[in-house]
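Recap from last week: sequence in, structure out.
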Amino acid sequence: MPQVDKQEKDWFLKELHPHEPMLRAWLASRFPTISDFEDIIQEAYMQTIKRHRKKELDAPKAFLFAITRNLCINLLRRNKIVSFESIKDSDTQTYTDQSKYIPDTVMDKEQYVTLTRAIQSLPKKCRRVFTLRKIYGMSLKEISEELNISIKTVEAQITIGVKKSQEYFMKLQD
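Predicted structure tokens:
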């Protein structure tokens, strides 16, 4: 096991560990089919620390979330069950799985890009609160504690975010 000096431990406690509740909430909202996140989070911590040892990270939180996302995707890929059926059986079946229909996939990506642009158009404070609530699925209380603001302010910022997002989408339809 690699040695951890006090400076690295302090860095971990300051830069990574405080984000664990948000990371868990984000994982639960983004990857609901994964039941246990312990190994993923530990591996993400280790990879982030290893990367930080090589070169200081400018955005350790973002790096941690990206590594965690990649670990989850890899886990889902490894666990993907592929069913094989005989050619005779598949010849008689009609496949109508709309989730794999190419125009729908393209539309989903376009909607995602539009949603991302709408969120990016929000004022900074509003964008941060809105993202924590709507994307990461954090509770009002968690957001309040994370950003050190009142729950009423969180509610107000979410309301502003919803209104401004609606305005953004309405402009696109004109």
